[in-house]
Write a structure and sequence with these properties.
5-stranded antiparallel beta sheet; 2 helices; 38% strand; globular
């Protein structure tokens, strides 16, 4: 059973193809002092998070790092299934691959 569940709006899903049949997903969540990007995989388990001063900054950073808005990409929609909008947060899935800077520019 996941430690916690986060329901998000599915029209705000960002995606990046990272390998054959593997995608990284992200949503931008408004916060009191900026925005948080939550990263998750095809099974909706959260693996990383990053904070930004503004939602616009988060969107620019996602684009710069190869992410695109899923609902704007009709080609991707024809062959990539959107993961469930109920994101699951469990420590064993946490991998700071973006927030560590390893795969983020």
């Amino acid at each position: 059973m996941p430690r916690s569940v986060l329901d998000v709006e599915t029209s705000s899903f960002w995606f990046k193809i990272v390998d054959m049949l593997q995608h990284n997903w992200a949503v931008i969540l408004p916060q009191e002092n900026g925005a948080e990007v939550v990263f998750f995989g095809d099974t909706s388990y959260i693996f990383d998070r990053m904070n930004f001063a503004k939602a616009e900054d988060a969107a620019k950073a996602l684009r710069r790092n190869g992410f695109a808005l899923f609902d704007d990409d009709k080609d991707a929609q024809s062959f990539i299934p959107k993961p469930p909008a109920q994101l699951k947060d469990e420590d064993i899935y946490h991998r700071p691959i973006y927030s560590s800077g390893e795969f983020w520019r």
